[in-house]
Amino acid sequence: MSGPVIRARDLRMRYGRAEVLRGVDLEVGAGEVVALLGPNGAGKTTTIEILEGFRRRSSGEVTVLGTDPGRGGDAWRARLGIVLQNWQDHPRWGVRQLLTHIAGFYDRPRDADELLEVMGLTAQAGQAVGRLSGGQRRRLDVALGIVGHPELLFLDEPTSGFDPEARREFHALVERLARDEGMTVLLTTHDLAEAERLADRIAILVGGTVTVCGTPSGLASVVRAASEVCWLEDGVPRTERTSDPSRLAFELHRRFGGPVPGLEVRRPSLEQSYLDLVAGKDEPITGRRAA
């Protein structure tokens, strides 16, 4: 399709007097993997539920695959793949049995056995869903989400509660889908490392609005928090926060006429910068874009 796969403009959601989304702007192009990153309670799940057509927005313009999700019918919904944050249904069904059953709702589904092989679940094909490990269950969730050949895949907090091994396996799976299938993916997460690994672009959602959006590398320069420059002056420890530590260090060098006693520059990690941003420790950067 021409144009963005997802387009939201001034998306707002209210529950009574509480405004959960306060003007979200977001675009996702065909074949992109975009992460909606933010702390718990930022509005990530509400945003994705509106885009999926499961929740009616209060106001704003939204199109997904060229259709207002509030008016999308069965044909539109069949073009979506959805992996919910928690899905514990059908524990007694067999893995192949459940996948084959869901495939029957689509006009041109993937072959169940081929899909199980792609997902690394062939050995578990006859096993009850309720006996799968966390990582295996999540791979089955993705299989159920893509069995109908979706154009767009939604992943809501896909690795919540995973151990490190299961997380690595799931990340490799999503990367394979994006690379080999050219699938458009929108995922929500509160894990910066996960967003950096999987996403072409990251949109940071804080306080119900996207404060900054861009590539992981471009994002680093936009959200970088101030560095700390520490030194000793007349034996007294001094500390100053600055966005240009090199300049301050040079000024101190000139002032001291040589080496600065106890000089130390502490540059924040991208993770600390992100944490400062969501905690409101830095100035608002709403609407800024990173290359």
TrEMBL record:
Keyword Transferase: no
Signal peptide: none
Gene Ontology molecular function terms on file: ATP binding; ATP hydrolysis activity
SUPFAM superfamilies: P-loop containing nucleoside triphosphate hydrolases
GO cellular component terms attached to this protein's record: plasma membrane
InterPro entries in UniProt: AAA+_ATPase, ABC_transporter-like_ATP-bd, ABC_transporter-like_CS, ABC_transporter_ATP-binding, P-loop_NTPase
Keywords: Antibiotic resistance, ATP-binding, Nucleotide-binding, Transport
PROSITE patterns membership: ABC_TRANSPORTER_1 (PS00211), ABC_TRANSPORTER_2 (PS50893)
Stretches assigned to the ABC transporter domain: 6-232
Record membrane topology: Peripheral membrane protein
UniProt subcellular location: Cell membrane
UniProt-listed CDD domains: ABC_DR_subfamily_A
Listed GO biological process terms: response to antibiotic
Residue ranges crossing the lipid bilayer per the database entry: none
Pfam family, one: ABC_tran
Name recorded for this polypeptide: ABC transporter ATP-binding protein
The organism of origin for this protein: Actinomadura darangshiensis
